[in-house]
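Is glyoxylic acid placement plausible here? Inputs below.
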Amino acid sequence: QKPKVIVSAPLPADLRERLAARCEIVDVPTGQNPAETVPAALREQIVGMVCTMRTKVDQALLDAFPALTVSSNFAVGFDNVDLAAATRRKVLICNTPGVLDGAVADVTIGLMLCLARNLVAGDAFVRSGEWTKGAFPLTRDIRGKTLGLLGMGRIGRVVARAAHAFDMNVVYHNRRQDPQADGLATYVERDELFKVSDVLSVHIPLSAETRHSVGQRELALMKPSAYLINTARGPVIDEAALIEALRAGTIAGAGLDVMEQEPLPAASPLCQLPNVVLQAHVGSATHETRRAMIDLAVANLMDALGNKTPQAMVNPEVWQARA
Ligand code: GLV
Ligand code: GLV
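Reply from A.M.:
I modeled the complex. Tokens:
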């Protein structure tokens, strides 16, 4: 009898075939609660799961699936997981680091260029015929300016490399000074990062410690000419404080691929602010990158069930304890 696994993520046909050769697939529509969709008798037999960040892997889910041994996230972020609860229950958590770094960095750079050069408003200016009445207002160079990276993990490093092609000075702050940042970016203290950056980009994961860690105090440290970019997780920034700062001119603008509430309703004040560029959490959302992510997520799941060390584990201590 094949091990039973939940699939609650979009799975390409060839990958489904490969997984089905080794496992019995129980489909749960993406984002729906597996504890509510899978019948009780079947729940007790589920040993693995691949899911998106819309599935809350919390104590209630772990209780509903007593035989679960591995949950593989189709995402690099794992703030949908109660990691302490999973580790206590010896459920291995996997994720997809590395394969999306370039795609997320590209959106970061894109947002920076949109903000500094006002490219989104420029498009509307041409379409509406405003151009026939006069020239578009002058914008700002990014060349020679300072990019500050809050967080210097894999994605931060790719952004730093890209910024060098735009002749930017790159500084960063991280919990630890990172030898891998040598030659890419200069370490600065946290307050200093907010003070010196012309563009400040967030590349830290969401956790209890980082929730609202960019708030009124940090925004007040920033230059009135500075832009804030977030392609990480919305709740890392105190959104109410950001909206206030954007209205008051405390900072010049913001580029957001992530928000506290997703999907963002049109009624959000963010949608009314002219100095904001918004994207629909699309950092990793290309055909190529999403394919690489689902490949990795399914490989992690199959490896874990086949007693082969998965490539990307969030709580490797669970795996080591099994050996
Ligand atoms: C996307 O947000 C991810 O965490 O992969
Ligand atoms: C993940 O978000 C990373 O920067 O490694």
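Short version: Residues 53, 75-77, 100, 284 surround glyoxylic acid (ligand 1) (CB under 6 Å).
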